[in-house]
Write a structure and sequence with these properties.
This protein has 203 residues and is α/β, with parallel strands linked by helices. 37% of the residues lie in helices and 16% in strands. The protein has helices spanning 3-34, 72-85, 110-116, 130-135, 169-180, 197-201, and strands at residues 60-65, 91-98, 121-127, 143-146, 152-156, 185-187. It is globular and about 85 Å long.
């Protein structure tokens, strides 16, 4: 084999390896984006032990957020869309996870700062995921919609994929239920774990 042919063969081999690597990376990214987190063990009624004071008679959203999860920004963007499109009587609580053994300020990220600017919303620092456990959530982005009587009407995430913002079926469902005052829906949740499988199994 001539040197020229040898070089050509090496270039072809390198191209095939490169194409295979890119393809594998793309498939890995897509698998990550489309793999949901652990669904909530949602309760039909607002938990009595919660320290969050639910507005009497009002429809209420509760969303769990891990401040360092790369998917959380998309969740906040979808919450913005929901609060803009839903009736003005809808209230929202964003529960921000913070481990008690982490330094003060660990939870202060740009995502949490954005949550403070959501309309008709309250940010609650959820130390050691106490409230998340009461509501039955395990994953960042998990959202619950309760009606005026505290009955659960929606449980799931509000993004179509991990880290992807854009009006989707989940957002449409929450807005429709809040506007009509009727119906129930669920959706996969895409985000980082707040409560591990082991912790959840021991509940």
């Amino acid at each position: 084999m001539s040197a020229r042919h040898g070089i050509s063969a090496l270039l072809i081999l390198a191209g095939l390896i490169w194409a295979g690597t890119v393809g594998a990376m793309y498939r890995a990214v897509r698998r990550f984006e489309t793999t949901p987190g652990r669904a909530a063990a949602a309760h039909d009624q607002w938990p009595d032990a919660s320290r969050i004071s639910r507005p009497a008679g009002a429809w209420t959203l509760v969303t769990l957020i891990h401040p360092h999860c790369s998917c959380s920004r998309a969740t906040i963007e979808e919450l913005q869309a929901i609060m803009e499109k839903a009736p003005p009587s809808l209230h929202s609580f964003v529960l921000v996870y913070r481990p008690s053994d982490f330094p003060a300020g660990w939870e202060k990220t740009d995502v949490v700062e954005a949550a403070y600017h959501l309309p008709r919303s309250h940010v609650v620092i959820d130390v050691d995921a106490r409230e998340a456990r009461l509501f039955g959530g395990f994953t960042s982005g998990q959202t619950f919609l309760y009606d005026g009587n505290g009955h659960l009407r929606f449980s799931g995430g509000v993004t179509a994929l991990r880290g992807h913002a854009g009006f989707n079926r989940a957002v449409a469902s929450v807005v429709r239920i809040a506007k009509s005052g009727s119906g129930r829906a669920s959706h996969p949740v895409f985000g980082c774990a707040i409560i591990s499988q082991q912790e959840g199994a021991s509940r």
